[in-house]
Amino acid sequence: MTAALEQHDWSARLARRAHVLGGGEITAILALAGATDVITFSGGFPDPETFPTEILADIATRLIAEDAAVALQYSATEGLAGVRDYVTGRLESREGAAPGPGGLMITSGGIDCMELLAKSYVDPGDVVVVEAPTYLGGIMAFRGYEADVRGVPVDGDGMRVDVLGDLLASGLRPKILYTIPDYQNPTGLSMNAERRHELVRLARRYGFLILEDVAYRDLGFSSAPPASLWSVAPDMVLQAGTFSKIFFPGVRLGWAAGPDEIISRLVVAKQNSDQCAGALGQRILEEYGRAGHLDRQIVSSRALYARRAALMADALSAHMPDGTTWTEPRGGFYVWLTAPDGVDTVALTAAARARKVAYVPGRPFYAGDAGIAQIRLAYSRVADHLIDEGVRRIGEVLRTALEEQ
Description:
With 405 residues, this protein is α/β, with parallel strands linked by helices. It is built from 14 helices and 14 strands. It has two domains: 13-51 and 295-403, Aspartate Aminotransferase, domain 1 (Alpha-Beta Complex), CATH 3.90.1150.10; 53-292, Aspartate Aminotransferase, domain 2.
């Protein structure tokens, strides 16, 4: 007779830090990536229309045939030398500053930089300041190492640096401040130049590190954004970049640029996580970028996303109920919508799905309890002809909720 298997309560054995990681919001967003029966404004995905498949196929075929010893092998943890040289040159041409030999590493996307920084520098209870709202992956990265994450509000000119200054004067002492100054996720708004310089001044005075996420910096629709925080203060700023939005996310490549001593610690942390970014993807990026293809891809991507942002603005004006407000991004992937008072956008996700439309409610983008009436709408991957219909369905959901109050 077979003995009954002993039952174990594995949930009871979770590490303490695992209880603060949230309810799987990123997993839910990614799960909708391949949905064909839903108009989804949920994921911040680049449109596959921008992926240069024929060029990439040619480069990959050649690298596998001619450079397999490098392209198919482990790479140095800090990244292949040629790729670091390419990214260094790219930063110098765009930012007017170049990292030194020890001031740059290749990461597995932007989130890798956040995780490595948190792993290396955050002790339980350390204060990390973020924008309110901000990228939910950033909140999760720091909370995963038991940081005390505090939010500072944003307005049309980015983070309210004046509010931050008051908090610092009152005794708040963050170890790290995380910001997305260009076409922010989730609001689509940018920090103006004056606030950038004031933020650097506060960092110097109070001794905290600025983590600058530049995921959308290359995707402005018209004028260039102000100087990056890293170019203004490379001794006080760690820049986290990613090629996921401007190249393609399947290679999971990004960079970290900052003080040499911080980069050296991130390299050690990466050795103990995924060892290195994939060499094949690195070599494809280098060959593609040096040939000028990436610059051309960015130009066409900007035009595509600018057109969709304009279509979103028209659709929102046509279909949202009175009392609804939204941001007007000048770059990036997102519109941030605030529903009329009394609307709970989390509770309405099922009603939206029943109408075959999806969005991300605002709550996960805050470190605190705000966001109940907000919605993040990503227009980047929604086909032009579906934007108006998708927004119309969301308007119906909000209007029905208001009528039932």
